[in-house]
Fold this sequence. Notes:
- By secondary structure, this protein is α/β, with parallel strands linked by helices.
- It folds into two domains: 27-178, no CATH class; 194-317 and 354-603, 3-Layer(aba) Sandwich (Alkaline Phosphatase, subunit A), CATH 3.40.720.
- Helices cover 40% and strands 13% of the residues.
- The protein contains 16 helices and 15 strands.
- It has helices at residues 25-28, 33-64, 76-101, 107-124, 132-152, 154-192, 228-234, 250-259, 281-287, 322-327, 330-336, 339-345, 356-369, 418-448, 481-484, 510-517, and strands at residues 203-209, 238-244, 291-296, 314-316, 376-382, 455-461, 466-467, 473-474, 485-486, 488-491, 499-506, 545-549, 566-571, 574-578, 584-588.
- Helix 2 crosses helix 6, helix 3 (76-101) runs antiparallel to helix 4 and helix 7 crosses helix 14.
- The longest helix has 39 residues, at 154-192.
Amino acid sequence: MLAPQRTAPAPMPAPPARSADATPAAARRPDGRESAIALALGLVLGFAALTGLAEGALLAFTRLYLHRLTHVTSRVFWMAPVTYAALFAVLALPFALAGVRRPRGWWLQALVALLAFLSAYSVLQLATGLYPWARDLLAAGVAIRLATFASRFRPRLRRLVPRAGLALAALVVLLGIGSTLAARIRERRMLASLPAARAGAPNVLLLIWDTVRASSLSLYGYARPTTPGLERFASRGVTFEQAISTAPWTLPSHAGMFTGRWAHELSAGWRTPLDDRYPTLAEVLADNGYATSGFVANTHYTTAESGLARGMAHYEGFGSSPGDFLMSTALGRRLAWDRLLRTRIGSFDIPGRKNAASIDDEFLRWLDARPAGRPFFAFLNYYDAHEPYLPPAPYDTRFRSTTVPRKPLMWQAWKMTAPEVRGERDAYDGSIAYLDARLGSLLQALRGRGLLDNTIVVVVADHGEEFGEHGVFTHGNSLYLPSLHVPLVVVGPGAAAGARVAAPVTLRDLPATVLDLAGIRRSPFPGQSLARFWAPGAAAADGPLVAEVGQASGLPAFYPVAVGDMRSVFAGGYHLILDGDGRQELYDIRRDPAEARNLLPARGVRP
């Protein structure tokens, strides 16, 4: 009997395969929208923080160990990461959107490559010894390598990058908070440690108009009414008709006014800051109980890293404007200083430049918050008359004399036509008129606070400016009078009202003068008080006045300082200039103030 055959049960049909798109949203979430956005955000924060911190570390090394100027804010450790985060976030947005639509697509490698290239390119901008094409190749190599890494280790990146990015962002926030608190604690401790000041000690206000030459001021006979306010104020004090700067550019000139030293005695140079070899005016005044402060607009050569802040309890240089954030990054500076780009987009001003109104506001806020009962010393640096000359309305058109389009960047200025030069002179004069108007507002603010009568006010310029008088433009490249002859007005207790001093004087004597007028008899400064020129019975004789400038790179070969260091001496009404190549020029500045006739033509010097 045959066994009954058993029929095997029919197999259960396999469930139909579902495509990735059919996966429920809850199941797709780890690899979908949230994962792509979190990964992109983590990459942006991570690359931004690492780039900014790397730049900050390199700049700190340059300052602390190489003792070189960087011209970058000390808040770079948090401002640069914030700036890069904003830039990278905008660039990452299209890739993040692509990741939302196709989580496993190409977007991750492309985003990593882009961010890695920009990060490496930015950091390599600080390696000035590399050729530009070498920096580009190195940045591209880094980008390719990291993009390959991202493709191989995608799952790990998805888990680790968001956390790492947030951790680095938190570190940047802590650095920002810590640096701000440290500055405030330092200021409070310094103010708390001040000795008692002499009863009735006058305040001291040092106003430096950066890049203002005396010959462009109506106070000195200029035909245009550029300084009516200064003329009225000067009638209350002493006007020096032939004040000579110790250098034709910012840092050594400021350093000379702070230390009483000639430029060759100081470390202040094109790439090196002022060191602590000599005491500064702020240090001496602080030792005598003064609350000291500085507010500067020239963020290239007068910020804290320049050495000029020594002795200041409070010092404000770089601000927090969008321009300041941009300039805190190497990539931002690379774009900001590109002449072709600036010309094409019509952006000529210096990013983050503070105008005179901003400087005054910073000073007055500090003034109102300073410890009551203490005399103050405040140093204010104004940058409005520095090129590019861009005065605000209505001063931008006050002295317009030509309709020829301007070239505000002054690039290859020696190729300008006469009308183009006039246009720049017009704007320069307008900038001085704006400074003059702001001076009136500041003095009124002090008067309203009841402080002006007991305040020594010094209005001076660090150096002048040239507009082709001797074939040169701007400053820092020659030792002719337009670069060295500056305004100097001293008003306040001890200054003779309405006096004008015709004898040549040097700005080197300013710190000794301030201490003399402030009643501080023990002076560590080598100069002499300028009060000798107006005090009854005082000897007004003065020795030779010296001005110097070190060789500068990047200038036209025919500029005097392009071929070597320069020196000049003022004595007996003559001005002797030793050019960088050893040639000499001699001018009788009493009969020939324009220095048009060289008295040493036989020596083969410039006519």
